[in-house]
Specification:
Elements lengths: L1 E2 L6 H8 L12 E2 L6 H11 L38 E7 L8 H12 L7 E5 L3 E7 L3 H8 L3 E2 L2 E2 L2 E3 L3
Parallel strand pairs: 1-2
Antiparallel strand pairs: 3-5, 3-8, 4-5, 6-7
Length: 163
């Protein structure tokens, strides 16, 4: 994969290059970086907990061993997602400008509503708002229980997306 620019979000970059070498297989992602983008590259390295190597001709890296990650949420929770049933998109009032990150939203939803982290889907944090999807059967409960929850010093507001 060749990236002609560095995305502004480390999560976007990790998602973008994550397709190059999956489940222990090797892959190569080439990213063109201008000197002024060094800070963005360092943010990606911190987020992915790895170092991005400079280009060297003929370089080859052995695939990393596959390690199972610990579960994000260890408390017993009500898991409602079994592959069936629709999801509902919710709009969160607040985004990157409020310092929100996807983990903040997933954490607030799981703590306040009792859903498991696996029940929270498609979290996208934009500049001034965010989107998140939850099982339709629990959407109203999530909106009610999470709205007003303080995250990073600001109360969250959630509502169902229309249409």
């Amino acid at each position: 994969m060749i990236n002609f620019d560095i995305p502004t979000s480390p999560d976007v970059y990790v998602h973008r290059i994550g397709r190059t070498g999956r489940v222990g297989r090797s892959g190569r992602a080439i990213t063109f970086v201008e000197p002024r983008q060094r800070g963005e590259l360092e943010a990606i390295e911190r987020n992915a907990n790895t170092k991005v190597a400079a280009w060297t001709e003929g370089a080859h890296v052995q695939p990393a061993p596959v390690q199972e990650r610990p579960r994000r949420h260890s408390k017993p929770r009500e898991t409602v997602r079994d592959g069936a049933g629709p999801l509902v998109k919710l709009i969160v009032g607040g985004g990157r400008s409020a310092g929100l990150e996807p983990a903040d939203l997933v954490g607030a939803i799981t703590r306040s509503s009792g859903l498991d982290g696996a029940d929270v889907h498609n979290v996208r944090v934009l500049e001034r708002f965010a989107f998140v999807e939850v099982p339709a059967a629990h959407a109203d409960r999530v909106v009610e229980s999470v709205s007003g929850t303080d995250v990073r010093g600001r109360p969250l507001s959630l509502e169902r997306a229309r249409g």
